[in-house]
């Protein structure tokens, strides 16, 4: 054990003698780990947030599709779906996207009954804050924290929106709300069904879609077939289909970011190839001196592996910790824009940490282990050369 500490001490001192080269390797190694681990952390965290939001979504969403475009669906269709065996509840929903020309942001406007809001709050999905009274009255809204800040509003203030024909409609801010899934509620405006219909110009006999709840997950596919028979031409979106879509979407976006980062990976591969191709004159002289004073080939290889391990492992840990702080403490200001979506109202606070240990070790295996391995062969070759031959070169 004592000899190992002496060997480790000599290896560290050897790294200090070549500061410029080793610092450049350390910086490049840390940058590669920072980019790849940061992208992976961000993608996983957003995916988990999306899955949390989907937990409270209906099992099947029924949309009225005409000529490839979604149109409002008649309320009478909800009665047809309710009669299907296996369906516990059908909720006609009134909601849509509203573009605010004052902030150039898109809001999600949802029209719900006060009972629905109370039920979601009781389940812990929504957290109502600064609520003046209950229930909501006509021309009153609950708004997400992002809308509150974007429009410089306060509870009790006035929020002006515009109908499709351009005529203004004024609302009183009765309170704000937030959710454990910040990406879900940050840009949301909640109002009563009647006010939402008035804002979007939707007839009371119509809804935007139908939310169908099926208690038994095994029956979802069969219920979907029955709904398709009852409502020919309707588009059905199952919750599991949304789960797969979100997974594919975030996987595609993270793939684009990783592709952009391939330049750093290429630099790392060039570095590894240069290390495998051979040692510098200075390194060969150092090995020759060690062989001349009695070091064994095994000792020289062990020292080189310790140097590579120390350099790559410290670079990996620093890059990984910087990526963690950037994503889960600072909120990843650059990566967030590329991976969250098209909305301009992003939650300012960081996403809750999500860490996959298996991926951490996988990234370590793909970076640290190859860098250590490629240095063994050139060192072994230098050890086989007679020290006198090296001195005479």
Characterize the structure shown:
The chain has 393 residues and is an alpha+beta fold. The chain folds into two domains: 2-52 and 247-392, no CATH class; 60-213, no CATH class. The protein contains 16 helices and 13 strands. The strands form two sheets. Strands 1, 2, 4, 5, 6, 7, 8, 9, 10, 12 and 13 form an eleven-stranded mixed sheet that branches. The protein has a two-stranded antiparallel sheet with strand order 3-11. It is elongated and about 95 Å long. Mean pLDDT is 79; it is low at 117-126.
Number of strands: 13
Low-confidence regions: 117-126
**Overall outline:** elongated
The SSE order reads: HHEEEHEEHEEHEEHEHEEHEHHHHHHHH
Largest sheet: 11 strands, mixed
Structural class comes to alpha+beta
Average pLDDT, all residues = 79
- Measured by DSSP, the beta-strand proportion falls in 15-25%
Distance between the termini: 37 Å
Number of domains: 2
Radius of gyration: 30 Å
Helical content stands at 55-70%
Count helical runs.
16
Q: How do the strands and helices of this protein lay out in sequence?
A:
Blueprint: H1 2-17, H2 19-54, E1 60-66, E2 69-71, E3 73-74, H3 76-82, E4 89-100, E5 105-111, H4 114-122, E6 126-129, E7 140-144, H5 145-150, E8 158-162, E9 168-179, H6 182-185, E10 188-191, H7 193-200, E11 206-207, E12 209-213, H8 220-230, E13 234-238, H9 239-260, H10 262-277, H11 281-292, H12 297-328, H13 333-340, H14 357-374, H15 376-384, H16 387-392
Parallel strand pairs: 5-10, 7-9
Antiparallel strand pairs: 1-2, 1-12, 1-13, 3-11, 4-5, 4-12, 6-9, 7-10, 8-9
């Amino acid at each position: 054990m004592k000899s190992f500490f002496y060997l480790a001490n000599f290896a560290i001192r050897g790294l200090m003698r070549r500061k410029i080269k080793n610092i450049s390797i350390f910086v490049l190694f840390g940058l590669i780990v920072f980019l790849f681990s940061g992208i992976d952390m961000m993608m996983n965290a957003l995916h988990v947030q999306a899955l949390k939001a989907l937990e409270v979504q209906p099992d099947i969403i029924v949309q009225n599709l005409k000529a490839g475009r979604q149109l409002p669906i008649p309320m009478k269709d909800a009665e047809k779906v309710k009669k299907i065996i296996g369906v516990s509840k059908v909720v006609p929903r009134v909601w849509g996207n509203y573009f605010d020309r004052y902030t150039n942001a898109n809001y999600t406007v949802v029209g719900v009954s006060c009972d629905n809001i109370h039920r979601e709050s009781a389940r812990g999905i929504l957290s109502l804050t600064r609520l003046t009274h209950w229930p909501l009255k006509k021309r009153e809204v609950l708004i997400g924290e992002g809308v509150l800040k974007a429009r410089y509003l306060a509870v009790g203030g006035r929020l002006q929106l515009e109908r499709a024909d351009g005529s203004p409609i004024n609302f009183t801010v009765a309170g704000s709300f937030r959710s454990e899934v910040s990406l879900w509620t940050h840009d949301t405006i909640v109002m009563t069904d009647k006010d939402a219909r008035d804002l979007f110009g939707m007839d009371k006999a119509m809804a935007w879609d139908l939310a169908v709840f099926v208690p038994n997950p095994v029956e979802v596919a069969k219920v979907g077939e029955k709904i398709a028979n009852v409502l020919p031409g309707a588009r059905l979106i199952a919750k599991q289909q949304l789960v797969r879509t979100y997974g594919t979407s975030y996987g595609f976006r993270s793939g684009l970011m990783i592709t952009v980062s391939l330049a750093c990976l290429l630099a790392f591969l060039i570095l590894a190839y240069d290390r495998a191709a051979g040692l510098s004159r200075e390194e060969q002289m150092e090995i020759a001196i060690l062989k001349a004073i009695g070091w064994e080939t095994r000792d020289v290889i062990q020292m080189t592996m310790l140097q590579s391990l120390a350099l790559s492992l410290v670079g990996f840990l620093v890059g990984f910790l910087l990526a963690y702080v950037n994503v889960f403490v600072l909120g990843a200001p650059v990566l967030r824009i590329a991976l969250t979506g098209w909305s301009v109202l992003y939650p300012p606070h960081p996403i809750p940490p999500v860490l996959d240990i298996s991926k951490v070790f996988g990234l370590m295996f793909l970076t640290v282990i190859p860098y250590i391995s490629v240095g063994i062969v050139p060192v072994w070759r230098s050890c086989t050369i007679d020290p006198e031959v090296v001195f005479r070169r």
